[in-house]
């Protein structure tokens, strides 16, 4: 199953690769700060995606809600007594949000087809025949769908986001423990915040 999805996602390797790299980056950001990847996608997605589920993020309410959740998590992380990210609930939430952010990014990377009046009209031919140039103009292959519209790309992107979030969840926990042994915890936390935000925005920039 996964092999089939990967093959489908990489069938158009050139357009799909930036989307998959971006998905991995926002997933990695979600492992460090669970809400940051989703917030970055919400804040960088144009509101024109009204026909897709990602429109819930790109709208005003979605963007404000995602950004508020991300800022709240960053602030709360500096207080003692916060549950460990390595708890079952902590890991699960990061995996799910990493996959969701990556899938939303892949969906948002698809651009709506141009309006019909914006597509150059084909030059008429005097005697079109079956299978000739005129048929080719109106075939599905003449106007291929963007990579992000392919369900295989979205599925692989979500998988990459989930895997990357697992890796950075454990890496972030290790980093915080290591750097706080002989110094206050907050400098390491702030650095982790910066890395999470940087990864999330880099992922969105690469994919779009």
SSE layout and pairing:
Blueprint: H1 2-9, H2 13-32, H3 36-44, H4 55-58, H5 60-76, H6 88-108, H7 133-137, H8 151-179, H9 186-207
What does this structure look like?
This protein is mostly helical. Helix content is 65%, strand content 0%. It has helices at 2-9, 13-32, 36-44, 55-58, 60-76, 88-108, 133-137, 151-179, 186-207. It starts with a helix and ends with a helix. The model is unreliable at 9-14, 112-119 and 133-149 (pLDDT under 50).
Task: Give the helices and strands as they follow along the chain.
Answer: HHHHHHHHH
> Per the principal axes of the C-alpha atoms, what is the gross shape?
globular
Number of strands: 0
Helix content: 55-70%
- Total number of helices: 9
Mean pLDDT: 79
* Gyration radius, rounded: 21 Å
Tell me about the largest β-sheet.
none
* Low-pLDDT residue spans: 9-14, 112-119, 133-149
Q: Cα distance, first to last residue?
A: 27 Å
Structural class: mainly alpha
Strand content: under 5%
Summarize, please.
It contains nine helices and no strands.
Question: What descriptors fit this protein?
Answer:
mainly alpha; 208 residues
């Amino acid at each position: 199953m996964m092999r089939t999805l990967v093959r489908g996602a990489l069938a158009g390797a050139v357009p799909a690769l930036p989307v998959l790299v971006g998905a991995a980056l926002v997933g990695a950001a979600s492992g460090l700060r669970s809400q940051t990847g989703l917030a970055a996608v919400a804040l960088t997605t144009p509101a024109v995606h009204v026909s897709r589920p990602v429109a819930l993020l790109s709208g005003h309410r979605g963007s404000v809600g995602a950004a508020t959740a991300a800022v709240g998590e960053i602030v709360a992380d500096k207080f003692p007594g916060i549950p460990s990210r390595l708890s079952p609930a902590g890991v699960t939430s990061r995996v799910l949000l990493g996959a969701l952010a990556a899938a939303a990014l892949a969906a948002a990377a698809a651009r709506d087809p141009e309006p019909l009046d914006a597509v150059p009209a084909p030059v008429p031919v005097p005697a079109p025949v079956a299978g000739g140039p005129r048929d080719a103009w109106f075939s599905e292959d003449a106007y291929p769908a963007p990579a992000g519209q392919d369900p295989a790309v979205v599925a692989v992107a979500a998988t990459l986001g989930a895997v990357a979030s697992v890796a950075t969840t454990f890496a972030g926990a290790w980093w915080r423990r290591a750097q706080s042994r002989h110094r206050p915890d907050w400098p390491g936390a702030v650095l982790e915040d910066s890395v999470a935000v940087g990864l999330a925005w880099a992922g969105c920039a690469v994919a779009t």
